[in-house]
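User: Predict the structure for this protein chain, please.
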Amino acid sequence: MDILKVVLCGLLILWGAFISYSAIFRMKKKDFSDDSRLGSSGYLEWEILSKLSNKLPHNIIKGTIIMMGATFMVLGSWMFQTL
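Assistant: Here is the predicted structure, written as structure tokens:
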């Protein structure tokens, strides 16, 4: 068993748990909206995606974030299992 793979698996599981926990318990309805001007941060692609996601209901966005966290946890578990 390679120690680097174990550490990476643990980090993926922890990161996924943190994302899911934040989406479920810590994020409020106003956290799902983007109020900045377009082009202010320099990452135009992310800004366009966040502006488009403002048109979706916040429950769909929250569900997507929870799914992303679960995906990180499943990936970490799968990598740990294939060691």
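Residues 29 and 73 are 25 Å apart (CA to CA).
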